[in-house]
Amino acid sequence: MSLVIAGERSGVGKTTVTLAMLSFLSRQKSKVQSFKIGPDYIDPMFHTSVTDRPCRNLDPILTSEAYVRSCFASHCQGMGYALVEGVMGLFDGVASSGENKGQITDFASTAHIARLLELPVVLVIDCSRLSGSVAAIVHGYRSLDPRINLAGIILNRVGSDRHLTLLKNALEPVKIPILGILHRQDEIAIPDRHLGLIPSAELNHLETLFDRLAHLAHNSFDWERLLPLLKVYSSPSPPVPQSPSPPVPPSPIKIAIARDRAFNFYYQDNLDLLEKLGAELIPWSPLEDAKPPEAACGLYFGGGFPEVFARELAENHSAREAVRQAVLSGMPTYAECGGLMYLCEKLVDFNEQTWSMVGILPANAAMGKHLTLGYRQATALDNSLLFRAKETVWGHEFHRSQLTSQPQPPLFETRGCWVNSPVFLEGWRFQQVHASYIHLHFGTQQAIAQRFLARCLAFHKENRLG
């Protein structure tokens, strides 16, 4: 079994509660596997830092319901405990068709994943502006969908003992277990900025934070009730069989992957799949290294925060020129969001300062106040590095920058997942470059990884590298 940490809405403290539980269990030397529902990158970084084990994303839009089951089952094997952090409010999802389920109005929500994996839910409630009304909230969440096993609640941001008494008295008729009580914690806070929490790699004293969270969890949660819910008692059902993979090349295909404070948005499943298919992922830093690794025959730039480190990226002239020459030489290059911004001519930051970037894409990336956010159905307009014409894939956008020039020729025609959503032309494709704001998960799209590695292998052979 495992446990889903859900919220009655966004911002109620799901991540704090999850990290507190993970910190406590990890300091007990327990083997803990964590999961995050949705397309999030930053929360999983914190999970991974706590448990020293990669957090896995559970997203049936980017993958499928079958993939979510398979991912959960395979990564729970051999674990002592497992914990799933939800997304937004418990029932916040989209209207979509599930596999063999007809229409699901809360598809990809926390509730959907809890039903799909048959897991109990603990609901986190922000009590800072509540007293008697807490009972109505709990009653509503427990009653709305009887398929949800609401195992208990955690009262967060309780102001005082008097406040707690009011909450408990109100909840008495509802008869639901209170599994945790967290008072306001001004000394425990994770700083954030324009796209959410600041990534763990940028924060000092993480271990001190996790120690405080472990102490908080020890004193605030009902572990006698929680541990049986969190414990993995037996091996889950075997994973769903995957489609056969092509033969692994005799020697690894070396891919230079940008991994530093500016570029760190990667789904662990994508990296695992590339390695399974024969890639050797060699980390390097566009912030600090003079150039990508010599033996690389492909470049992989994930998302991140190049706008925060624009000065450092611009001042590393040798790295920018080395990347530019590699791309011009025909080296296959995959760039998502922040990676796309790095390949542009200029980056204009929030202070309206302009910084030189690699200069491969004839456009500038300018930061703004408007947030572009949501799932996207992307259809390839022509053959490209990774796609065949008219192929369709689901991805996710999350950025505050906009390009000053439209891509010529564009890579995708995109639309949102809501009815009558507008159509946009998006992404750059030329030579051996795929550059797009769309974040992709390779889990049910192995052809993406296969084609990328095939192009990298061909480049390797043509240039007789290594």
Q: Determine the CATH topology of the largest domain.
A: Rossmann fold
Number of strands: 24
Distance between the termini: 47 Å
Supply the CATH class of the largest domain: Alpha Beta
Structural class: alpha/beta
> Rough shape?
elongated
CATH architecture of the largest domain: 3-Layer(aba) Sandwich
Note the total helix count: 13
**What is Rg?**
23 Å
CATH superfamily heading of the largest domain: P-loop containing nucleotide triphosphate hydrolases
Strand content: 25-35%
Instruction: Give the total of domains.
Output: 2
* Quaternary organisation of the protein chains: single chain
Taking all residues together, what is the mean pLDDT? Answer: 92
Tell me roughly what share of residues is in helical segments. Answer: 25-40%
* Sheet having the most strands: 11 strands, mixed
Unreliably modeled segments = none
Task: Spell out the key features of this protein.
466 residues; alpha/beta; Rossmann fold; 11-stranded mixed sheet; 24 strands; cobyrinic acid a,c-diamide synthase activity; CbiA/CobB_synth; cobalamin biosynthesis
Describe the overall structure:
The protein has 466 residues and is of the alpha/beta class. The chain folds into 2 domains: 3-230, P-loop containing nucleotide triphosphate hydrolases (Rossmann fold, 3-Layer(aba) Sandwich), CATH 3.40.50.300; 253-463, Class I glutamine amidotransferase (GATase) domain (Rossmann fold, 3-Layer(aba) Sandwich). It is built from 13 helices and 24 strands. The strands form 5 sheets. Strands 12, 14, 15, 17, 18, 19, 20, 21, 22, 23 and 24 form an 11-stranded mixed β-sheet that branches. Strands 3-2-4-1-7-8-9 form a 7-stranded parallel β-sheet, with helices on both faces. It has a two-stranded antiparallel ribbon with strand order 5-6. Helix 1 runs parallel beside helix 2. The longest helix is centred in the last third of the chain and has 18 residues, at 446-463. The chain is elongated. The mean pLDDT is 92.
